Amino acid sequence: MASLTLKINNKNYTIDADPKMPLLWAIRDLAGLTGTKYGCGIGQCGACTIHLEGTPVRSCSIPVTAAANKNITTIEGLSPDNSHPVQQAWILEQVPQCGYCQSGQIMAATALLKKMPTPGDKDIDVAMQGHICRCGTYPRIRKAIKTASLLMAQKSSSK
Amino acid sequence: METTSKNISRRNFIKLSGITGAALTLGFHLPSQGRDAIFINPSAAGSTNTELNAWISIDISGKVTITNHRAEMGQGSFQAVPQIIAEELEVDLNKVDIVFAVGNSKKYGSQVTGGSSTVRGSYKNLLRLGASAREMLIEAAAKKWNVNQSLCYAENGQVIHKPTGKKLGYGELVEAASKLDPPKNVLLKDPKDYKVLRKPLPRQDNPQKVNGKAIFGLDFKLPGMMYAVVERNPRFVGTVKSVDDSETKKVPGVRHVIKVNRDTFNNMFEGVAVVADNLWAAMQGRKVLRVVWDDTAFPHHSTEQLYDKMRETAKGDIISYRTKGNFASAFDKAEKKLEAFYETPYESHSCMEPLNCTAHVTDDQCEIWGPIQAPDWIQGNLSAHLKLPIEKVTVNMTFLGGGFGRKAFTDYPYEAAMISKEIKAPVQVLWTREDDMSIGPFRPGMVYHCKAGLNGGKIGSFETKMAGQNMGTQEPGADKKGYNDSVTEGLLEPYFNSFPHYSFGDAPLDSPIPVIWWRSVYASTNSFAYESFIDELAIEAGKDPLEFRKQHLWEERYQQLIGKLEEVSGWKSRKKNEGFGVAITECFSSVVGEVVKVSKDANGKVKIDKVWVAMDCGWYVNPDIIKAQVEGSIVMALGAATKHATHFKDGLAVEKNFNTYAMPRINEIPEIEVHIMENEEKAGGVGEPGLPPFTPALTNAIFDLTGKRIRVLPFNLADV
Ligand code: FES
Ligand code: FES
């Protein structure tokens, strides 16, 4: 057991964990933030995606110790009130069905749009290919990323 | 469309009095077996001890709470049920609170969320319920104002007196309304006057599904809750010979290692549960657990052996289900004859949220929380097994991260309850992805043997023999000689009129592999055989496949649908280098036609360009949810057709996670265009019927483009 600090959504969590415990379970079961999901545990589905220092990573595939004292953003940290353009686009395009994969999808899309504010279809394919949606919301995810890109452009031009 | 309720004399809407005094709560009683609601007088209800449901409740502040009695697994019941009630109740859906019901079939009727039944099974009752509450509120207002009730109407949570324009909010009326008798007869709106129904209103559950706040089964927590994972026999059948848990018990956080049973179709399967303070510790403990299984009585078969057997039985005698005329002699005399075999694989449901369940069992009660499709079945199952009165078993539904039929089964809550009972604490049981994918129940693999004769360019005789496991006969002692009435699931009803001679039946495969319904059930596999074979017959008859179908399906509803497909897909003006394929199927009272367009990419590989859908689900609620469900159904069908299958080797499932059970990804999805048919038909299902036509439409399109006929699934698109 190791005592360490996780900085999640600008808040410090001091936890006691097996150093080999994947970050996913530390976030869900020790920090109690359940928006990040378990889907496969082997880096295949993307449901567990979070941002580590701004980069999207599979939290099921890195040990908790690798994230200690680094900035972690989870779905809960995107906005307090669904005001993030990606969240808004997801609602506008009515993306979620069961919703289980969507935390991971949204975190991946957010990271893509940060790097590339107006992604084309190929860019979306590359960034989102690692994310499974068993409900098949893919056509709407593609639309929503483009909508989010527009919303972000509007936001920055109105500033 | 029926606008006035019939049989209303037998039905009295029930007012639940005495709940909070100042609230109007309305519901009705549905007998668990019956199809129609029975409406009983409240006083009679009291004396017969009938439990009444409560679908609508309005408090003095005017807040409306609507109970959703069905599971929400992505298909949209969370939206559909309230959207129906809100229409007749005249309230703004955004001002309505929606709560999940707990499992209670006495109260809600069947809550088993399967067979695409939520809307089609209850919409008429829901409409009447909303209208009845509205009429009582209007009556209360009219009495208060001392005016003629017919001069009052309701709108946006208020009753308005037309001549004077005075208004009273529902909240101000509930007390008086709750003392009135529900109306004997209510007039329902004409669909052309709908304000809420038929509108693509945004789903009420989506805001909480984009910020991590929606609570799925695995997100549910109880104080003092333990976590468990279970080592189950990977060969499905057999008992625990020995357990060595010495290493497991050394893992920090592990509290218990116990044997636990799982009830699968009344067969008790043994497993060993590792219970710990957190999930990770439980998983670590399980890794070092040593269990030796005795599974000598179980045939350690392979996929090849299973399919060899099915192919053999599909040639022989069948258990006859539906016949007309004399197939054998008609086929014998046919001008042209065709015979083909089609094969579909075993599949796992692989809901994005793996199976899990939270249970708290004490000496005198049991409470369950989880992603559950059939809360009332679980209540019944646990009440019997725990020997607790039914009202002492409470089953709560969380949001479901997918269901597809798997979460309508009772095994995983049963297992969780048994662990909680044994350790005397609340427990959450997680099935890892590997458990979820490899233990079953699975969609059964099937082999179809089709034969048909053509006379004068039309089908004169048609026969299908289906070989595969029967989902309905898995209980010990079940009658395995009875016919399987699902053999024709998916096949369009009018074919039974237009085929002069036919014979349908099955040759069941006896295997202990547990199998269960998978999104659109038998139609998901039957339709591949039927709609491929009909395509082959069209080609053999020298006819255009769409034209050929038109000649066999002369009822208006089907002609309309074919016309729509022809129009939107540009079927007749398709180009030389494009392959077009069509398939039309019918299940859960909806008829769906799909046209797939394929072409070759720069490397000469077949790619899917577009899918056009004509969805005829009759009376409907929300066009956007229908479109979403059809899109999702097509993606799921695409996976089962071209990406994944469950194979068996030495009696074990081979595919255990998404690295081997490959899923369709965003870059592989064609454009999908959905058209909803407008007609007067009764409501049909929405969550499943879009799935069956896709695969045969795809393989028919591939034939059109390449001349290559695909009869075995799954196939690799890159290898075509
Ligand atoms: S749970 Fe991490 S990628 Fe699937
Ligand atoms: S919305 Fe259900 S898995 Fe993506």
Comma- or semicolon-separated keywords:
heterodimer, A: 159 residues, Ubiquitin-like (UB roll), DNA polymerase, domain 1, five-stranded mixed sheet, 5 strands, globular, B: 720 residues, alpha+beta, Aldehyde Oxidoreductase, domain 4, 27% helix, binds FE2/S2 (inorganic) cluster
Structure description:
- The complex is a heterodimer of chains A (159) and B (720).
- Chain A has 159 residues and is of the alpha+beta class.
- Chain A has 2 domains: 2-77, Ubiquitin-like (UB roll) (Roll), CATH 3.10.20; 85-157, DNA polymerase, domain 1 (Orthogonal Bundle), CATH 1.10.150.120.
- Chain A is built from 5 helices and 5 strands, in the order E-E-H-E-E-E-H-H-H-H.
- Chain A has helices at residues 23-30, 85-92, 102-115, 121-128, 138-157, and strands spanning 2-8, 11-17, 49-52, 55-58, 71-73.
- A 5-stranded mixed sheet of chain A has the order 2-1-5-3-4, sandwiched between helices.
- The longest helix of chain A is centred in the C-terminal third of the chain and has 20 residues, at 138-157.
- The N and C termini of chain A lie far apart (48 Å).
- The mean pLDDT of chain A is 97.
- By secondary structure, chain B is an alpha+beta fold.
- Chain B folds into 3 domains: 10-211, Aldehyde Oxidoreductase, domain 4 (2-Layer Sandwich); 222-297 and 355-430, Aldehyde Oxidoreductase, domain 4, CATH 3.30.365; 303-346 and 443-719, Aldehyde oxidase/xanthine dehydrogenase, molybdopterin binding domain (Aldehyde Oxidoreductase, domain 4, 2-Layer Sandwich), CATH 3.30.365.10.
- Chain B has 17 helices and 28 strands.
- A 7-stranded mixed sheet of chain B has the order 11-12-9-19-16-17-18. Chain B has a 5-stranded mixed sheet with strand order 1-2-3-4-5.
- The longest helix of chain B has 28 residues, at 118-145.
- Chain B is globular and about 80 Å long.
- In chain B, 57% of the residues are buried.
- Mean pLDDT of chain B is 89; it is low at 1-21 and 31-53.
